[in-house]
Design a protein that fits this description.
Jelly Rolls; alpha+beta; Immunoglobulin-like
């Protein structure tokens, strides 16, 4: 899967701090794994995780101390907040309730808990700092240059070089603290005295820069020295200088030329302060080595134009220009709270082959996202060209038709004189194959290294089964998910699109949450979506709205509510609901204006990408496979009203609960009058999606549910011979919809199919990520991205919640109560899975051996679990070698549909049963 050490990181939300606690009999050990700097709130949320030996560990109380200095915290003085002992079992999402926090405030905190095992000692200290909360805190000025240079081209295919900025300043002795606040639009690198600051890449994160601009905060105390210092930046284009400026202005939003805002604050031991800001006193040039950088087209680097020492003191910048004081982009400045993008992994190439004179093609063995690091020796002025693609033609050359007009080409010009090493810094590529042209000598796999670049999210899940195909499908999903994290969730990372389409990550965000701690990324994306909302309530299909697509359909913008619901269900993030409730309600009110007689009329995409009946077809011609768009839109409106009822209930809005329920009732009645055929017991044209949505959304009359589901079974097993026939919308509910009705075997059959259409078909055709089209290799490969996640549907949710049996209770959310209910389907011998929830690690490892079922589970401290063991009776279940019903910490509840249900507290358990 991912060649990176597993990071046991507590899943936390935007603005949270975190703390681990290990409790034995009396002791608590707390380790801070992230000390966020520059948070953009005065009310952060604090969480800790309790681990320990024994069973049934539950928290009964806690005490939090927050101090203004580490020394005060060590002395147990909570001058900012002493919660005192609070009787509560809550250990996550605790709102800071101390003294008001101002800009730049440093906060040090620790916690101790009382549990069923006794009182702990204080944890180790952790910290956070507050960013610049007010516009008046910023003294820096925006600087840039709102023109191109003679070697640039501002056209449909832009060629804009990087801009290099520098300034020298003097610092006195006795520096107590130095902090830099930095914005570089679109991307930046920051240096102090020649040393890079931070290990992030591709910063600043993407937003609609007219609505919000993200800044980074760095503690650079160790980088500043007494005397003269140099601070320097390099600016790339990113999403700010549009990848296709002057091209379809009605579609593509433009922001202008790169610009920066920098504020360095020095605090001395004697109490004095010094501030260095970006202003007209800086010097800049664009005549440096990065000659062009464009996310679609690549980066060109001319090492003969390097400027040795440009970011250090003493460099001669006499010929450099003075920057302009430029207008701000208009967006509100906010501190970055989602994880930065980093190089998270390296990939060794498999082979390099000569395909024609001067041209080699390298196979990385994996469709990956990032860049190549190249080592090369050659003459001054020689050029090496690297072009990227996902697949090759029969003659071994690259296949690039599916990349559209993206040039995806890096060019490196050698300076000569020895071995040179280079990789781009302001672009990324989605690729498996690389065309190498004019490389001096013969390139080998040892001359290149693939560097995987994406949001550095903690890995929270693992999943392995006895079925190698399923393992490959899971592996492909993980590679696809991580490759499309770029400060926002993308649809694809390789062609001239790379847009944050909403529907691609609707249920997808839920699936992804089992693999990566995606809480802060998706909290940030909710802000992007809200900022893209028009005053009338309309929400776009792409957010941030880099493309002007406001088609006013139901299904794509519905992602807004689905992601908010995911953050609450998986992470306990109630703030996501309260913060966005008004905007979500506003959108639903707006969409009701398109409703006629309680039928929602607006739909643009239908059940997007339904697999055609023949693998040679681009679109299905069989009308029985397509689903009425109004049916989809109306069913979704009903589903979302149910979600809003729940949100309103949680936020204490009783009138809204009543209004949503009344409207939902009218829609349900009219929906069934319009689409349900009481004779055939089917909806509309009887497609799987037509029947599945109303059934899963609980719109079907109670007396008709079995018959409607029978139509789904027959359609899949008979008409489609056990194969999938749903598109992006239906597939989001398919696997759970089948399993909830007792047909996990059908879901398993579709998972393990290897002929068209199926996920296994992609694997057997050599896919190492997910395709955009079920038949992307035969219908029209030029239309097929080979790294899309939208066809993933609810497959990974099903893997974890159903095959592994790891699921959060719907009321005691965020895995406070865990539902352990595996589906040991025929053909599957074992599942080993784990999920690091916000409360701690959950493990499920089961295997079948004849009629025996062996199941090892781990439940984190301060939680409980409902455990469903496949068995004929409770007496047939053993736990750790004794009758389960009498085992310590195990309580028998009842028999239910061939399972013995037990309630357990935290700890490790081994269940054995005979069926």
């Amino acid at each position: 899967m991912i060649n990176r050490a597993y990071i046991a990181l507590l899943a936390l939300l935007l603005l949270s701090c975190q703390c681990f606690a290990a409790i034995g009999t009396q002791n608590l050990r707390c380790e801070m794994l992230m000390n966020p700097q520059g948070i953009q709130t005065t009310s952060p949320r604090l969480s800790w995780e309790i681990t320990g030996d024994g069973r049934g560990i539950s928290q009964t109380a806690y005490q939090i101390l927050v101090a203004s200095t580490r020394a005060k915290l060590t002395a147990n003085i909570g001058d900012l907040w002493d919660s005192h002992k609070i009787t509560s079992d809550r250990s996550v999402q605790i709102n800071y309730a101390g003294k008001p926090l101002a800009s730049r405030t440093a906060c040090y905190w620790k916690v101790k808990v009382w549990t069923s095992n006794g009182e702990s000692t204080w944890s180790q200290p952790a910290s956070w700092s507050v960013g610049l909360l007010n516009p008046a805190d910023w003294k820096a000025k925006w600087i840039g240059y709102d023109n191109g240079f003679p070697w640039d081209s501002v056209s449909k295919f832009s060629r804009l070089s990087a801009r290099y900025y520098r300034k020298q300043f003097d610092a006195a002795s006795g520096i107590k603290k130095a902090t830099v606040y930095m914005v570089g639009l679109g991307h930046y690198e920051l240096f102090i005295n020649g040393q890079p600051i931070g290990d992030q890449v591709l910063s600043t994160p993407p937003t609609d820069y007219t609505k919000s601009v993200i800044y980074n905060t760095f503690d650079v105390t160790k980088n500043i020295k007494q005397g003269t210092n140099a601070i320097a930046t390099a600016l790339g284009n990113g999403r700010f200088f549009t990848m296709r400026p002057k091209y379809k202005p009605q579609k593509i939003k433009e922001f202008g030329f790169p610009k920066m805002l920098l504020q360095l604050e020095l605090e001395y031991n004697n109490g004095t302060k010094q501030t260095i800001i970006s202003d007209g006193s800086w010097k800049f040039t664009a005549d440096g080595p990065i000659r062009t950088n464009n996310e679609y087209d690549g980066e060109e680097y001319d090492a003969t134009k390097e400027m040795p020492g440009w970011n250090t003191i003493g460099f001669n910048d006499a010929k450099w220009l003075k920057p302009e004081l430029v207008q701000a982009s208009g967006g509100k400045l906010v501190g970055q709270m989602n994880e930065p993008i980093r190089v998270v992994q390296t990939v060794k190439p498999l082979s390099v082959k000569l395909v024609k004179p001067g041209m080699y093609v390298m196979d990385m063995g994996q469709n990956m996202v990032g860049w190549l690091n190249m080592k090369v020796r050659g003459m001054h002025g020689q050029k090496v060209q690297l072009r990227y693609a996902e697949t090759t033609q029969k003659d071994g050359e690259l296949y690039v038709a599916n990349l559209r007009d993206a040039k995806v080409t890096d060019v490196y010009t050698l300076k000569g004189g020895g071995e040179e090493s280079w990789h781009p810094v302001f672009v990324y590529h989605g690729f498996r194959y690389v065309e190498i042209v004019d490389y001096p000598g013969t390139p080998t796999v040892n001359d290149f290294e693939g560097q995987v670049v994406n949001d550095d999210l903690p890995v929270t899940g693992s999943f392995e089964t006895s079925n190698n195909l399923v393992n490959k499908i899971y592996r492909n999903a993980v590679w696809g998910i991580q490759g499309n994290y770029k400060g926002m969730p993308l649809d694809c990372p390789q062609r001239n699109e790379r847009m944050p389409w909403l529907a691609d990550h609707a249920t997808g965000s839920y699936s992804e949450s089992f693999v990566f701690d995606n809480a802060k990324l998706y909290a940030k994306w909710l802000d992007d979506i809200e900022q893209a909302q028009k005053p009338n309530g309309s929400i776009p299909d792409v957010a941030p709205a880099y493309w002007n697509y406001y088609s006013d359909n139901m299904t794509w913008p519905a992602t807004y509510l689905q992601v908010a619901g995911m953050l609450y269900h998986q992470y306990g993030d109630k703030e996501a609901l309260s913060k966005h409730y008004a905007s979500m309600k506003k959108w639903l009110v707006y969409m009701r204006t398109f409703m006629k007689d309680y039928i929602e009329t607006k739909d643009k995409y239908g059940d997007w990408c339904v697999p055609p009946e023949s693998p040679e077809l681009i679109h299905s011609k069989d009308t029985l496979r397509t689903t009425d768009g109004k049916l989809i839109a109306t069913a979704y409106y009903y589903k979302l009203l149910g979600m809003m009822q729940n949100f309103a209930q949680l936020l204490n809005k009783p009138q809204d609960v009543k209004d949503f329920a009344q409207l939902a009732s009218k829609i349900k009645t009219r929906f069934n009058q319009t689409y349900f055929d009481d004779k055939t017991r089917q909806y509309a044209n009887n497609s799987v999606t037509s029947n599945l949505l109303p059934l899963y959304f609980d719109m079907v009359p109670e007396t008709a549910k079995k018959d409607v589901f029978k139509n789904i079974e027959d359609k899949i097993l008979v008409a489609n011979k056990g194969h999938i026939s749903t598109g992006v919308i239906g597939t989001q509910w398919l696997m759970r919809g089948l399993t909830d009705r007792g047909r996990a075997d059908i879901a398993w059959r579709m998972t393990t199919n290897t002929d068209y259409p199926s996920w296994g078909y992609m694997v057997n055709k050599g896919a190492t990520t997910f395709w955009e089209l079920w038949n992307g290799d035969t219908a029209n490969p030029s239309m097929n991205s080979q790294n899309h996640v939208m066809l993933l549907g609810d497959l990974l949710v099903w893997f974890y919640e159903n095959l592994a049996g790891i699921k959060s209770d719907s009321k005691d959310i965020a895995f406070k109560k865990i539902v352990m209910k595996p589906e040991p389907v025929d053909g599957l011998d074992f599942v080993n899975a784990s999920y690091h929830s916000i409360h701690g690690m959950v493990k499920s490892s089961w295997k079948k051996d004849g009629g025996r079922f062996n199941w090892k589970i781990s439940i984190p401290a301060n939680t409980t679990a409902m455990v469903y063991v496949p068995a004929k009776s409770a007496a047939a279940v053993m736990e750790s070698g004794q009758k389960a019903a009498t085992s310590k910490g195990v309580k028998f509840i009842r028999m239910e549909n061939g399972r013995a249900l037990f309630e357990v507290g935290s700890g490790d358990y081994v269940f054995d049963s005979i069926n």
